[in-house]
């Protein structure tokens, strides 16, 4: 996989424009919808700052896609509104096409593969279900669900098994897919299960994750979807690429497209389509046993005779030949217990008789398989039934012309009676065997056993185990529906009860944790007002062993239980995952109408208008282009609008099309002089929520223009109401029930800021009256606020700030705004007596601004109800929400809330205009309606913010800011130092821990501004570094742990003014070298001409002598990969020229720091390098070798050897998307670092530890003597690893606790 050479050349040629001119954040959703990026890519890119680094990371992802992804990306840019972006896309596309003609590269098709248009469910949806799973890691066995094939019952077909085994070994190493195909009954499943079990259990292949067996069979697409959704609850992302998936018995060729998530798989099927050869290594199943194998099967059931006796009996050989050695027939014969020669002769006569008196014909077999079964002392009807069941289980093909219904009913009844007897009437006590719970209802209905059916559908223990077995509610609801239909057809009382249970399960299907839930307990809470369910569960409790556990819930007074939020209705809207758009009318003006899409971005795309109450499609419109980006509908539901891409006019934002659906007529825009306007490209189009004089009014936004229009007949007239702003307007919104319009913009021009490097941290919000068309209110809010937890003050630091994203307006009793800063922070801002100065005054801000609760940390969207009493907040991971929260608002304060969580990701959530009903559209195209009003719901009361101190802590807490922290062990005791800014004062806070219970605290006031603080093991000094106007000052505070102030001294070690060309100086790394008492400081100096220097300062702390080394041949983006007391390795990327990795030997008081080597690499191919650090620190002994990074495992091993090659390959897979991997070896230990200096793998050649991006390893502790430390950025936990075993031997939830660990005594 990867783009072609031509596309690579185009990307590299235009790399500067892609990095510096492309606002990739604006395209993430479209890139995801076009399958250029996946969910993980979007999540990763979303959090990367600044924009240049984000663009750079996107390019690295794009080059690993195919040419089709590149062409989609170009078309996406071409459709953008901005000319610069549009031109960039056109240039990329033109250059790639020119290059194609010159190099004879094939053009990539612009249309999706035809089979995708025929699917009602996108294959990509299954992948999303699997990769977005958040269930816990389940590793109870390596052979999950793999059927048993004991040697006592099955034989091993050596040649056939060896063929499968050899191929599976390659798949374990390189990945891939196998298809084992052949006629029914030929032993495909048995052979696959035998080989897989042997390889995993005995040969240690596919470890540590093992395999997962899934039975497919002849099922519908909906049933397959339910199976795979259940599978998603058992597998997390770490297992996805490692597991071997065994898909058994696939009937439908289309289903192969749903299984592409598996990186390693083996499939069995009776069919083999020619298309499979492109993806699967096909193995044809040997359809017949050999004579020896057939005799082995017979011998399994005949302990009194040996193989020799059977193989020398010609009648036995004739019987084997007569059934063509078919495994299924041989297995049946083995169970007949034939003894005499007469028995064998009679069997041969029956099998060779071709005519069937019953008129039944078994296809694909040229012998009498029916007679084989009829010989086993069972009736013809029973033999027929068995063969039919074998057909259902995909063991043979069967065509029925006539049958005995009475005999089948009796057979089913016998099975039900046997089950009942074994479980003593308690259906839930039968052991789980992968058949009983799946087919019990089916057999009971076929047996026409009314009593058994009613007992089963009232047995919640049986239902609970069935859910755990099937891993989906769908199959249980299907069985209950069939049982209810049967009971209704036979006029059995209370059949409605079971249908009521089905509706209850379907209503809550989206939020029930199927894998972990206990159905009886869940139903006690959900069905508290359904008497028969509560009574039946109470009976079940008395029979169940866990009486106390259930009884705690059962004794609740259900009359006092508050109602939970539950969906009032559940409908369908759209057909595929890309049908994510939704707009609704106001039911106050008539029926509730909904506009959405069907098959969006496919050739058969339609805009669909539906009457919600009756679920009837009113109208469908075929758009000019299949790419629909937005939809809207008027309040009365008569006018709809949609924005789609137009290839004909090649405009970036697409064209809005407006239709009167009652007249099936397209409406056009006219200016004030009644001149028809064509191809208007608005960013937004929103209908007024109120209808004025039977005319719909709408507002449009285009760049820096806002215009108001009125629909009169079949024309859309401009109302001479327009707002034009100097800057680009970000968004518009109708407020005050359509009487006013709110708009906002950022108060600076981006391109001018890039040139002048001057910008204003302000966003302006205006409110305009529709009738008088006057600005009623104008206010300013900060564009960036501090991103640190609990801080809400404005910040000028863009990298450390959260940008303003969106706002909504509320005016009920108290006028306020809902503010959203980058989805991380938000809240309500009261507008009474507000001005921008309020943000800078803590006392004023705490009165006017009320933040959202701390659990609102991933805000995706927010909506206001029509009565302005409720705020709807959508929350979730990345760009996709899976949870909504509804807040009650009173007098500008949040009072209470309720939450709704969903198993699927959500496309849209909104209030229905005119009431407090909530609509939620998820990614499986289910549309849920909720009623979120009334005090009888489970509203969670927010804590009263009357406590002034508590409220202050949510806004600013105090004026102190911790700028930097450092820790070390000094005289065997832990010490922590914090550099704090308190107002305009800078001070050091020192925590010394000689004993855990009695920490000692010291404060030191500093005489000037500092930014960083450092302490080092066994150095009785604090080093503080400051940078003021480019002047760097390094100060040493000695004897800081001494109680005697006379012994404490402040010494300025080094200070230096920048040259005229230097704009910014930043300290990047520091180290202390104990051997010669030398402090090492690495500084990055950013110049005005966009160059960047690397400066290394070495300071001898004994005599104060310093030596400065500066490398002026570095790129602006250089960063440190590795540093210790003697060597420094940095990466210097240059996008339009060469890229380098440089290594420096750090000097001392007599020796200058020097560069000892420089390695060039390509950003496309990357660089893999290995350095052997000398134990005696001599640069002459520094060994280095390298290769390109983008190679396969075979080449890794060929160049680097088995050990290093496997390690590089593992690191490259785990840390995909990086340019550089460096292995640094010192003695018996090694680390592998990525291009940011983060550890991928650490260990020795016996044991290793792999780290993902969540972990950060202490860089000062790489080459420890006994222990080393890793920090989890998400959980904030710290782990201690033992050097030799590379195993985590201790974990601390807080850093302070870690400092007190006496490892020798604890471990």
Written overview of the protein:
With 1307 residues, the chain is an alpha+beta fold. The protein is built from 35 helices and 62 strands. The strands form 12 sheets. Strands 12, 13, 14, 15, 16, 17, 18, 19 and 20 form a 9-stranded mixed β-sheet that branches. Strands 7, 30, 31, 32, 33, 34, 35 and 36 form an 8-stranded antiparallel β-sheet that branches. The chain has a 6-stranded parallel β-sheet with strand order 1-3-4-5-2-6, covered by helices on one side. A hairpin with a 2-residue loop joins β32 and β33. The longest helix is centred in the C-terminal third of the chain and has 22 residues, at 1193-1214. The radius of gyration is 36 Å and the shape is globular. Mean pLDDT is 77; it is low at 100-140, 354-368, 397-403, 545-563, 647-652, 945-958 and 1300-1307.
Quick overview of this protein structure:
With 1307 residues, the chain is α+β, with helices and mostly antiparallel strands. Helix 1 packs antiparallel against helix 7 and helix 25 packs antiparallel against helix 26.
């Amino acid at each position: 996989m990867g783009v072609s050479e031509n596309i690579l050349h185009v990307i590299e040629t235009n790399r500067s424009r892609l990095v510096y001119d492309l606002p990739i954040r604006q395209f993430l959703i479209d890139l995801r919808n076009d399958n250029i990026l996946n969910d993980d890519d979007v999540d990763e890119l979303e959090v990367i700052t600044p924009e240049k680094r984000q663009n750079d990371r996107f390019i690295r992802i794009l080059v690993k896609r195919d040419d089709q992804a590149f062409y989609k990306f170009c078309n996406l840019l071409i459709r953008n509104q901005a000319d610069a972006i549009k031109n960039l896309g056109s240039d990329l596309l033109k250059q790639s096409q020119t290059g194609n003609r010159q190099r004879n590269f094939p053009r990539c098709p612009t249309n999706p593969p035809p089979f995708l248009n025929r699917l009602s469910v996108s294959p990509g949806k299954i992948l999303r279900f699997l990769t977005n799973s958040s269930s816990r890691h389940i590793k109870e066995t390596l052979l999950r669900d793999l059927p048993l094939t004991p040697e006592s019952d099955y034989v091993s077909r050596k040649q056939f098994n060896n063929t499968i085994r050899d191929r599976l070994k390659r798949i374990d190493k390189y990945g891939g897919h196998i298809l084992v195909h052949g006629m029914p009954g030929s032993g495909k499943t048995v052979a696959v299960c035998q080989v897989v079990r042997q390889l995993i259990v005995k040969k240690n292949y596919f470890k540590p994750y093992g395999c997962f067996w899934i039975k497919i069979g002849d099922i519908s697409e909906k049933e397959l979807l339910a199976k795979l959704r259940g599978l998603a609850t058992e597998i997390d992302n770490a297992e996805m690429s490692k597991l071997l998936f065994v898909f058994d018995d696939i009937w439908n060729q289309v289903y192969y497209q749903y299984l592409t998530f598996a990186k390693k798989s083996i499939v069995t099927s009776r069919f083999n389509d020619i298309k499979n050869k492109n993806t699967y290594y096909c193995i044809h199943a040997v359809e017949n046993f050999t004579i020896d194998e057939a005799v082995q099967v017979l011998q399994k059931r005949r302990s009194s005779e040996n193989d020799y006796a059977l193989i020398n009996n010609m009648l036995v050989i004739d019987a084997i030949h007569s059934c063509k050695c078919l495994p299924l027939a041989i297995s049946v014969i083995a169970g007949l217990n034939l003894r005499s020669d007469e028995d064998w002769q009679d069997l041969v006569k029956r099998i060779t008789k071709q005519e069937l008196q019953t008129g039944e014909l078994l296809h694909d077999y040229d012998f009498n398989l029916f007679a084989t079964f009829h010989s086993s002392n069972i009736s013809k009807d029973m033999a027929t039934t068995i063969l039919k069941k074998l057909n259902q289980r995909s063991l043979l093909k069967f065509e029925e012309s006539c049958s005995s219904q009475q005999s089948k009913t009796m057979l089913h009844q016998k099975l039900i009676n046997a089950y009942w007897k074994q479980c003593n009437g308690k259906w839930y006590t039968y052991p789980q065997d992968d058949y009983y719970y799946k087919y019990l209802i089916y057999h009971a209905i076929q047996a026409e056993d009314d009593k058994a059916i009613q007992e089963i559908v009232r047995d919640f223990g049986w239902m609970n185990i069935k859910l755990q077995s099937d891993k989906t509610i769908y199959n249980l609801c299907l069985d209950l529906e069939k049982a209810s239909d049967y009971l209704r057809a036979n006029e059995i009382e209370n059949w409605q009860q079971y249908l009521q249970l089905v509706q209850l399960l379907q209503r809550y299907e989206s939020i029930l944790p199927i894998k972990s839930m206990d159905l009886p307990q869940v139903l006690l809470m959900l069905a508290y007002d359904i008497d028969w369910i509560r009574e039946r569960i109470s009976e079940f409790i008395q029979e169940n062993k866990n009486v106390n556990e259930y009884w705690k819930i059962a004794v609740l007074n259900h009359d006092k239980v508050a109602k939970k939020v539950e969906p009032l209705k559940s409908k369908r809207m759209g057909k595929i995952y890309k049908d994510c758009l939704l707009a609704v009318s106001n039911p106050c003006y008539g029926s509730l109408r909904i506009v959405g899409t069907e098959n969006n971005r496919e050739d058969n795309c339609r805009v669909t208008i539906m009457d919600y109450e009756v679920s009837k499609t009113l109208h469908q419109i075929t758009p000019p282009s299949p790419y629909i980006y937005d939809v809207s509908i008027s309040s009365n539901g008569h006018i709809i609008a949609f924005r789609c891409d137009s290839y004909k006019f090649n405009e970036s934002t697409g064209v809005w099309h407006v239709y009167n659906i009652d007249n099936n007529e397209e409406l056009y825009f006219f200016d004030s002089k009644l001149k028809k306007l064509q191809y208007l490209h608005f960013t937004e189009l929103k209908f007024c929520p109120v209808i004025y004089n039977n005319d719909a009014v709408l507002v449009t936004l285009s760049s820096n223009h806002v215009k108001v229009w009125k629909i009169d007949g079949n024309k859309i007239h401009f109302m001479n109401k327009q707002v034009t702003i100097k800057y680009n307007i970000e968004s518009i919104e109708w407020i005050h029930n359509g009487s006013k319009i709110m708009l906002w913009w950022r108060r600076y021009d981006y391109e001018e800021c890039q040139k002048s490097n001057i910008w204003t941290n302000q966003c302006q919000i205006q409110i305009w009256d529709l009738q008088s068309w006057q600005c009623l209110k104008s206010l300013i809010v900060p564009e960036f606020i501090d991103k640190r937890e609990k801080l809400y003050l404005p910040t000028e630091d863009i990298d450390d700030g959260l940008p303003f994203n969106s706002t909504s307006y509320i005016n009920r009793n108290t006028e306020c705004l809902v503010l959203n800063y980058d989805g991380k922070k938000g809240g309500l801002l009261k507008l009474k007596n507000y001005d921008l100065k309020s943000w800078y005054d803590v006392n004023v801000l705490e009165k006017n601004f009320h933040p959202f609760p701390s659990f609102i940390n991933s805000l995706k969207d927010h909506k206001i109800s029509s009565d302005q009493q409720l705020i709807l907040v959508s929350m979730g991971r990345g760009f996709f929400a899976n949870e909504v929260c509804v807040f009650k608002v009173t007098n500008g304060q949040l009072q209470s809330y309720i939450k709704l969580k969903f198993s699927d990701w959500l496309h849209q959530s909104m209030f229905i205009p005119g009431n407090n009903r909530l609509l939620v559209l998820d990614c499986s195209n289910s549309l849920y309606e909720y009623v979120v009003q009334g005090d009888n719901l489970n509203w969670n009361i927010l804590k009263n913010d009357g406590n002034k101190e508590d409220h202050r802590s949510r806004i600013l807490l105090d004026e102190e800011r911790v700028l930097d922290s450092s820790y070390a062990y000094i005289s065997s005791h832990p010490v922590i130092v914090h550099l704090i800014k308190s107002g305009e004062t800078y001070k050091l806070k020192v925590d010394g821990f000689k004993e855990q219970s009695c920490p000692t605290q010291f404060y030191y006031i500093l005489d000037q501004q500092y930014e960083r603080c450092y302490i080092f093991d066994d150095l009785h000094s604090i080093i503080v570094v400051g940078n003021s106007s480019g002047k760097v000052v390094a100060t040493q505070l000695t004897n800081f742990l001494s109680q005697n102030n006379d012994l404490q001294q402040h010494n300025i070690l080094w200070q230096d003014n920048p040259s005229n060309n230097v704009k910014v100086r930043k300290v990047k790394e520091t180290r202390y070298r104990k051997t010669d008492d030398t402090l090492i400081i690495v500084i990055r100096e950013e110049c005005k001409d966009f160059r960047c220097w690397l400066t290394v300062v070495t300071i001898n702390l004994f005599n104060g002598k310093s030596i400065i080394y500066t490398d002026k041949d570095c790129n602006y983006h250089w960063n440190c990969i590795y540093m210790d007391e003697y060597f420094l390795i940095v990466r210097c990327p240059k996008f339009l020229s060469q890229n380098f990795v440089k290594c420096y030997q750090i000097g001392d008081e007599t020796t200058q720091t020097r560069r000892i080597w420089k390695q060039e690499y390509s950003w496309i191919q990357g660089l893999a390098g290995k350095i052997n650090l000398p134990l005696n620190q001599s640069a002459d002994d520094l060994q280095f070798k390298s290769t390109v990074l983008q190679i396969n495992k075979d080449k890794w091993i060929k160049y680097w050897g088995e050990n290093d090659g496997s390690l590089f390959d593992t690191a490259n897979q785990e840390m995909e998307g990086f340019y550089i991997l460096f292995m640094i070896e010192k003695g018996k230990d090694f680390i592998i670092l990525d291009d940011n200096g983060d550890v991928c793998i650490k260990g020795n050649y016996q044991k290793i530890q792999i780290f993902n991006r969540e972990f950060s390893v202490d860089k000062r502790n790489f080459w420890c003597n006994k222990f080393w430390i890793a920090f989890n950025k998400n959980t904030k936990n710290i782990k201690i690893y033992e050097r030799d075993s590379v195993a985590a031997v201790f974990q601390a939830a807080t850093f302070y606790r870690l400092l007190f660990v006496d490892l020798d005594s604890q471990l």
